[in-house]
Write a structure and sequence with these properties.
Strand order of the largest sheet: 1-2-3-4
Oligomer: single chain
Shape: elongated
Helix content: 25-40%
Distance between the termini: 24 Å
Number of strands: 8
CATH architecture: Roll
Number of domains: 1
CATH class: Mainly Beta
Largest sheet: 4 strands, antiparallel
CATH topology: PH-domain like
Structural class: alpha+beta
Order of helices and strands: EHHEEEEEEHE
């Protein structure tokens, strides 16, 4: 089993700082509902920061975890991965950076689908995938 944490983009840190400032401000002027709302948002952001990861399992699956509050964990058989390429898409995904990898795979219906990830060490991540499936086309 090999675990890769998500790379974190500057924009994510800006959002955390902004929400933290709003939390402090709303607490300072006694806006209880706003303070509660900003606290919840900050907890969700920090939790995603800590728990967004990509795990290559010993059984040959790539498991993608987007945090504990977002229980839409996803896995794909590494042998079904067709191609890995760069992407800077703003599309929603379990990636905390805009420097992403687009993993294109064959789904169970014979069609191709994709998922966007942003591992901290892209080279090691791609090498770990290639160890399991050396027919993956890499375009990064």
């Amino acid at each position: 089993m090999r675990t890769f944490l998500s790379k974190v983009g500057g924009w994510y840190w800006v959002i955390i700082v902004l929400v933290s400032c709003l939390l402090f401000w709303s607490f300072w002027i006694h806006l209880l509902l706003a303070t509660l709302l900003f606290a919840i948002v900050l907890i969700i952001l920090i939790e995603a920061l800590i728990h967004t990861q990509y795990i290559i399992m010993d059984d040959g699956r790539l498991c993608i975890e987007g945090g504990r509050f977002f229980k839409k964990d996803f896995s794909v058989d590494v042998m079904q991965i067709v191609r890995v390429e760069r992407s800077a898409s703003w599309e929603s995904s379990p990636a905390l950076s805009l420097h992403r990898l687009k993993i294109i795979y064959r789904n169970g219906k014979g069609k191709t689908a994709y998922v966007l990830v942003s591992p901290k060490n892209e080279d090691m991540f791609v090498r770990a995938l290639l160890k399991r499936n050396n027919s993956i086309i890499v375009q990064i």
